[in-house]
């Protein structure tokens, strides 16, 4: 049976010290190598990239946590995913602000790396993430209400070409993504909208599809075997 849904499922790999880790609630210092995934028995990133490709996925989000925290780099993992044919969203922290996107590789500029409002221009026509703590948007120098942030994007004309909305406090928890947040953003933003952080099940993805979300970022539900393909 062919799916009538248009929302695309995009796997997330959080990589630290060369290994895939289980990200929970954005507390990076507490992340540990993943050990209970049905996809791979080892936390070796290349195993996950190869297996996800076999499962039919062709897009992937890779968070290089060492680069984000300024203690190293996992660029080889990103390069391997590109070599294997993935379209890659690469989060390498502030380092991504000075990198040039070249298909199939796009660098994610997270709000948590930006000073508000002085650096908002960096996200114009790039791939950017709204790094949220429930209803607030985290910047490097402040935490702002979602509405104020969206109004600033509108007033300054600095909408990204792809917007990733990530609830950091729900990452790895399977507590669900706040549908109302997706609705508010979709009302103002016409680009590609991808959400993540706490996605729990297929029924939730169906609700996000009805809102007009273009993609969802998932990790835990993949590792548990609850979702097994890019479309449902």
Automatic annotation (TrEMBL):
It comes from Ignisphaera aggregans. The keyword Hydrolase does not apply. GO terms for biological process: L-histidine biosynthetic process. This is HisA/HisF family protein. Belongs to the HisA/HisF family. InterPro entries: Aldolase_TIM, His_biosynth, RibuloseP-bd_barrel. Pfam families: His_biosynth (PF00977). Keywords: Amino-acid biosynthesis, Histidine biosynthesis.
């Amino acid at each position: 049976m062919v799916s009538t849904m248009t929302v695309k499922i995009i796997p997330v790999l959080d990589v630290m010290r060369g290994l895939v880790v289980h990200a929970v609630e954005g507390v990076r210092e507490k992340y540990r190598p993943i050990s209970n995934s049905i996809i791979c028995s080892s936390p070796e990133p290349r195993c996950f990239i190869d297996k996800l490709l076999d499962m039919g996925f062709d897009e992937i989000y890779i968070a290089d946590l060492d680069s984000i925290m300024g203690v190293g780099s996992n660029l080889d993992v990103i390069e391997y995913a590109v070599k294997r044919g993935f379209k890659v969203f690469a989060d390498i922290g502030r380092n991504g602000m000075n990198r040039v996107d070249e298909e199939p590789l796009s660098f994610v500029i997270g709000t948590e790396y930006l000073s508000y409002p002085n650096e908002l221009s960096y996200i114009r026509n790039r791939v950017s993430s709204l790094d949220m703590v429930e209803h607030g948007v985290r910047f490097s120098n402040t935490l702002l209400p979602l509405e104020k942030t969206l109004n600033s994007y509108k007033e300054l004309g600095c909408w990204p070409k792809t917007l990733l909305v990530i609830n950091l406090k729900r990452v790895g928890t399977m507590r669900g993504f706040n549908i109302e947040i997706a609705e508010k953003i979709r009302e103002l933003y016409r680009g590609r909208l991808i959400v993540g952080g706490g996605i729990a099940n297929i029924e939730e993805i169906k609700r996000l599809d009805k809102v007009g979300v273009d993609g969802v970022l998932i990790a835990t539900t993949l590792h548990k075997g609850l979702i097994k393909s890019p479309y449902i």
